[in-house]
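Two entries, shown back to back:
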Amino acid sequence: MYRIGFLGTGHIAAPMVRFLARTGHGITVSDRNAEIAAALAEGHGVAIAPNQEVIDRSDIVFLCLRPHLAQEVLSGLSFRAGQQIVSVMAGPSLAQLQTLCAPATDFTMTIPLGFLEQGGCPLPAYPDSDLLDRLFAPENPVFQVPDETALNMHFAICAMVPGLLDLMQTGAAWLAEQTGNPKQAEFYTTQLFSGFLAAMERAPGALSQKRDGLATEGTISLQMTDALEAGGVHRVLTDALSAIGARLNGVD
């Protein structure tokens, strides 16, 4: 078992803390979000401490800070050689982390989402996947990406999640207007997509195969995909992904 610390205790850190606490690790979390930290302490027996004490108590330190605050927070803290650092922040580069967390030299960068707690969350890892394998696999599949640019492209895809939820909310609101039952409309929309995706095969090409199997000639499904294409939705999506990727890679 490991001594693990979390700097930043919000909606990204909490599921990881709960997952790791169940497997018996000793965990200390920062008091930055007092309400979440208190709930974790009460429900999972984790310790709460100021940032520097979190580092001092831990052999593995997770950086779950808001990216724009990372430099301000980390520059005032002291790490030690031999500590393993895991960053889940979109933005700060490996080179920046190496400077801010020196003399620590063992770094891993990844992208956890909230459902990691239940398992099935894919975890891209750079530059090495070994630590994440030991902490989160096999419940969550871990895979290594070749470079930091590739990791940032996975961060960009993660930005699709709130985008898709936004579209689902629009659809649910439309259904509510037609039926007069907002609660049932949101339940149906949410259950429809979550159930379909949960049952879908994960093999390469499955996305296009499922789409084409539904959107056949004369169907309302084809009417929908044709309308989205004609409206430029795919172009808007790829443009947004490219802009996010460029931002993460520091390209103007």
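entry 2 starts here
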Amino acid sequence: MSMIVQMSSKSKIYHRPGCQYLNRIKEGYLTLVELQKKTAGKLFPCKCCCKLSKMYRDYEPAMKKILEEVDGLAKLEENQIKIQAKNYCWEIRFDPAKQHFRLYKKIWDETIGRTNLIQCSGYDGKEETGQLEKIIALLVGKERTASYPEAYRKAAWNIERQAKEHHMSIEYDGDILYVLTDMAAWKIVFFDRKQCYKLFHCPFGGKKMTMEQAKKARYHRQVDAGENSHPAKYLKYIAGHDRAKKIMEQDYHLLPQRSNKEKMYYNQARKREARKSTRRVWNLFAELEAQQEGFQKLSFC
């Protein structure tokens, strides 16, 4: 990930935005440069604004407040910042030549009997370059999600946001995420072998379940939801499914028919309603026959 820096067209020294020495460069000579691997070797960082100690000093008050959320304490050492937080010990290493940050997490490795440094990347798979604020935000985000099962950590924020938006109750149990709505119980299951998620459904039988009851309930696979690599997408599916069920309870004719899938659901609802109507007619005939037999028995008596 490249970074935009500022410099004089007559110099090979680049500055970060806001550097005090930028005021000494005449407006006509001030230019923007994208700092990449090719250009980094030919240019030189400013000894004032491009030093980690300067960035740390400027950002330290805000960083302390942000790290309070994860019980984090920071310490500057040479070209690295060591942070002890609630769940992990972290190291932020800085390369002055490339103006590049790397985030590392300390993990105890039982096979070698000592702690091991694991490099962490952003959620987009790219390394963070340029701003200390971004790398601290990445660290705090990983600390927040450390308590979630590993299979759901990257999607945890999105899952919580959607659950709150659609008034769902959620609870993790290992590789299973249970979801309760006012219509049904659901569970999202992570399959490690295939590295995918599948959705399972258990409708309420007229009585709403508690989370403990939902964990013991019998589910069926929601085949039309398919396999998914992003579990948060299932919450959107669940919300749409419940919304359609509520419409069907009133009148299936109100169901939308914009897409092919919506048309398929509409036809399924129409056929289901037709089967219900047929059953009602047969039940009515059965009642009439039972009444007629009763009248005949009375007449013989």
